Amino acid sequence: MAAVDKETHASGVRPRSYQDESYLHGFLGTVDDLQKAGVLQDVVLEVEGRRFPCHRLVLSAASPYFRAMFTSDMAESREKKVVLQGLDAGMFEEILSYIYSGTLHVSQVKVQPLYQAADLLQLDYVRDTCSSYMAMNVERSTCVDLYKFADVFSVGSVRKDCLQLIHKHFAEVASSEEFCSLSVNQLTEIISHDELDVKEETTVWEAVVRWVQHSRQDRLHHLPSILPHIRYNLLTSDDTTAILEHPLVREHPGSSEVIRNVVQKGNPDLKPRLGMTTEMAILCPSFEELFFMNPREGKYISCNYKIEDHPHARTMTVTSDNNIYILQTEVFEEGNQLSLFKYNHKENVWEKTGVSSNGPEDDLYETNFHEVDGILYHLAVNPEEERPLLQMIKYNPHRNQWQECSQLQLRDTLLCLYHSATVSCGSHLYFLTSVEVYRYDPRQDSWFELTPPTTMPDVCTAVAMGTEIFCIDFEFTQTLVYDTESDCWQELQGWPNPRNLGMKYRPSLFVMENQLHALLDVDDPDRKRSPTDCAHHVYVYDRSADAWRDLKATLPDLPDKKYDVYGSCAPVARLYLPYLKGT
Fold first, then answer.
1. 468-481 pLDDT, tens per residue?
2. What local confidence, expressed as pLDDT, does residue 174 receive?
3. Cβ neighbour number for residue 457 with a 10 Å cutoff
4. CATH number of the domain at 21-103, out of 3.30.710.10, 3.20.20.80, 1.10.8.100, 1.10.3470.10?
5. What is the CATH number of domain 169-265?
6. CB neighbours of 423 closer than 8 A, spacing ≥ 6?
7. Whole-number pLDDT of residue 528
8. Which residues, at least 6 apart from 50, have a Cβ–Cβ distance to it below 8 Å?
9. How confident is the prediction for the chain on average, in pLDDT?
């Protein structure tokens, strides 16, 4: 026979616990009233000569710093008066107000000293609130000052946001008085970054000169440690000569030798700065040719490669760090192999990574190739199963290793083969058809079913921008956007009269300069040309007007060829055009 709870009444009704919400909310108010009235205070804290009567119990409950002080064998635990060092009296008053009331007042003027006080007193909420406030107020006028503070106190999120803004507006920031207050380590960190939005490397050198001359006597000896961060490979010989002849370099013994050594050794890993590169969509008119285009700027470059030097690609991807990879299936007697090639920007050649995996069988249908958090994923559909199977393998560039991933059982063979798309968005992969949508979570190696775009009869192409995925159908009658955070679809405006375009091939999407673009091959109205030729149009979507507009771009003619893409959308990379034109 089971034992009976001693507190259970004869009726069998158990007791319950009740929580007095008004007591919980009112307790802090009562403590604040006691502090204001100066009642029951048992310790005086002195900061910069100012006296703050307080309650040990309240301080200990609020701060690990005070808890350790008042509950240990420290002398302060027995003293009636405790002097606190390293604090601003005004900021400590703000801290005490928070401890007794739960309310924190933050402003641009107070946020940094308030953070310092909270850091010393180990008040996580105050510290985190100040961090969030600083992050929300990173602007061109404040980014250098906040960067210096975040660098000293290791406020990672604020530091990152400040660096991004400094890189984006480097020329303007470098001309400010605040820029000259950077430490030498902070200066070299900034100018060594790829993300500087500068058109010429001389802008970086001029910023260094301004920084040194701001306090010439104290900073000239730092010049040899700064000079290696200038990218001499991006300068003309005349520019390099001008630097060698500059008074600062000539004045400091050894600086010219540093420059000559850096130039002589060279560094193939130094990339062009972000501002020197151009976003280009990559198309593949033929096996031996790649076509790079930026229709907004009217830039078009075609590069031909020897058949043996250019992999016969299954698919291509551009990673978040601007590396371009191609997958190629090679057929051998012992079976197919999937080989990976990486693009060498500087030499404009493809280099085999030296690794391969067992390739897909001939009856597997290619879907796409994507990167998520530095890992490359190759997906292919096997239609021969009773139900189609989405198979996936991943490649880790750091380990130089392929691995199997979780497979996904699909429902509709026809849609999976011919009316589907895969997209990398954020830290996930997405597989989309009109009736099935799945998200792959790499951390769990698992697929999860989501809401499908049931109003779209077929998914032709899809591309991610921010946290959204955009899709269009084969006839360009619909444009849908999927919000990955809310799992909701929204219909946008499609092309008004798509059938009048006379599209010859399926449209392709790509994202360039944070705008959605569509590439269409349509019937050529000029009947003098070959009936197989087509005209090429690029449309850009205007989100504010919910409308597509023709860019009126004049794409070069490709006789007997079409502007084809790798995968379900055209990959876009940032390219240094002299590397392409040099070939």
1. 999 998 888 889 99
2. 96
3. 15
4. 3.30.710.10
5. 1.25.40.420
6. 370, 429, 430, 432, 462, 463, 464, 469, 568, 569
7. 47
8. 89, 93
9. 85
